[in-house]
Amino acid sequence: MSETFATTVLDRFLDPVTDCLTPDVARRIVDLKIDPLLQSRLDELAAKANAGVLASEEAREYREYVEGIDLIGILKAKARLSLVRHSS
Questions:
Q1: Model confidence at 61, in pLDDT bands (50, 70, 90)?
Q2: What is the span of the domain harbouring residue 31?
Q3: Which of the 8 DSSP states describes residue 52?
Q4: pTM of the complete model
Q5: 24, CA 20 to 30 Å: which among 32, 49, 67, 79?
Q6: SS (HEC) of 12-35
Q7: Number of structural domains found in the chain
């Protein structure tokens, strides 16, 4: 399954979430930020991935980070959409 297809499916599965968001919750989701320690580890793994020197366990960890980032990105997009809908 391609990553784009998987993201699209996940996006569609999360569509009902948008209907459940209050404006306050939507704003909190939009404002989510990764904590500095997590960002540091992600940067380290990304540098190793770009250099082609990730160990297999690190590659698995890095994929989990990327999947988490994708999920948060979709949730943030849905939260922004919710805010637009609530402002109309």
A1: very high
A2: 3-87
A3: T
A4: 0.79
A5: 67
A6: HHCHHHHHHCCHHHHHHHHCCCCC
A7: 1
Q: Tell me the C-alpha distance between 55 and 60, whole Å.
A: 9
**CA separation, residue 78 to residues 1, 46, 58, 73, 87 (Å):** 23, 27, 30, 9, 14
Q: How far is CA 67 from the centre of its chain?
A: 7
Q: What residue type is assigned to position 56 of the chain?
A: S
As a whole number of Å, the end-to-end CA separation of the chain is 37
Residue 56 CB coordination number (10 Å):
7
Q: What is the mean pLDDT of residues 55-72?
A: 94
- Whether the per-residue pLDDT at 38 is higher than 90: the answer is yes
Please, are residues 45 and 55 in contact by the beta-carbon 8 Å criterion? no
C-alpha torsion 45→27→77→81, nearest 10: 180
